[in-house]
Design brief:
The protein has 164 residues and is mainly α. Helix content is 82%, strand content 0%. It has 7 helices and no strands. Helix 2 runs antiparallel to helix 4 and helix 2 runs parallel beside helix 5. The relative contact order is 0.15.
């Protein structure tokens, strides 16, 4: 690592406060999603779903783990490169992530939710590439998220088609 790179690396308590900030950003996205699903469990169960749809209880634990990984991923990338283009992509994908749940559950706009998730998938791909250049562990932490969003996109599409 060059002397310049070492000079940019956050030190001491600043890096832990930054981790808390990344956690707070992800928590905010999750909270928006949580508000979007409040009281919609019965509605989700009443939708026509493909046979391969997971039970609704699985989403909470999966998303909790994925959100933790997204936060740590952003933090690792920030530690390597500061708040640059890669973190703007991270922020954009988090915004699309937060928008999806209210679209799908709150507004029952399955087609718009699918468009959102397709854009989200593309931003996660761009984020993996951008993080790969900064921190391979940061990029690797996004891979399960990307896989889950791939699955969620297929499920969103199937539910949209089955309930149109």
């Amino acid at each position: 690592m060059t002397r310049t790179a070492l000079a940019r690396k956050p030190r001491g308590s600043r890096r832990w406060w930054a981790l808390a900030g990344f956690g707070a950003a992800v928590f905010a996205a999750a909270a928006i999603g949580g508000l979007g699903v409040r009281g919609t469990g019965e509605e989700y169960q009443n939708l026509v779903q493909p046979d391969w749809a997971p039970p609704s209880w699985l989403f909470g634990p999966v998303w909790s783990l994925l959100y933790a990984m997204i936060a740590v991923s952003g933090w690792l990338a920030w530690r390597r490169g500061g708040f640059g283009p890669a973190l703007w992509i991270w922020t954009a994908q988090l915004v699309l992530n937060a928008i999806w749940t209210p679209l799908f559950f709150g507004a029952a706009q399955y087609g718009l939710a699918f468009a959102d998730i397709v854009a989200l998938w593309g931003l996660i791909a761009a984020n993996v590439i951008a993080f790969w250049r900064l921190s391979r562990p940061a990029a690797a932490l996004l891979l399960p998220y990307w896989a889950w969003v791939t699955f969620a996109g297929a499920l969103n599409f199937a539910i949209w088609r089955l309930n149109s």
